[in-house]
Amino acid sequence: MSVRVNKDTRVLVQGITGKEGIFQTQRCIDYGTKVVAGVTPGRGGEKTEHGVPVFNTVRQAVRETQPTCSLIFVPAPFAADAILEAADAKIPLIVCITEG
After folding, report:
1. Which residues pair with 12 in a beta bridge?
2. What is the reported pTM?
């Protein structure tokens, strides 16, 4: 088995402003993960309480921050679309943990 995540991994969090997104982003940052961006449609231009910039789309976030991993925390009905959006933006590693 190969290791796909290391100290150089740049993480984008889809659903960063939701309950799980906020909670898990804090855990990641506490652990030392480089969280470079978040995505929540309609919330672009904001920053999270952790100082992470929020974008409306994954493509915008990729263009601005060059993430190497997407970590998805969205409700189950939106998970497939979130995965496809990350794949379409050419993010090489996608991890999806649905809410609920």
Report:
1. 37, 70
2. 0.93
What the block records as the tokens of 35 is 């969280």
Per-residue pLDDT tens digits for 46-93: 999 999 999 999 999 999 999 999 999 999 999 999 999 999 999 999
Give the gyration radius of the chain's Cα atoms: 12
What are the pLDDT digits (tens) for 9-48?
999 999 999 999 999 999 999 999 999 999 999 999 999 9
For the four alpha carbons of 45, 48, 34 and 91, in that order, the dihedral sign comes to negative
* Burial class (CB within 10 angstroms; exposed 0-12, middle 13-18, buried 19+) of 51: exposed
Q: With contact defined as beta carbons under 8 Å apart, do 69 and 10 qualify?
A: yes
Judge whether 72 and 94 are in contact, CB under 8 Å: yes
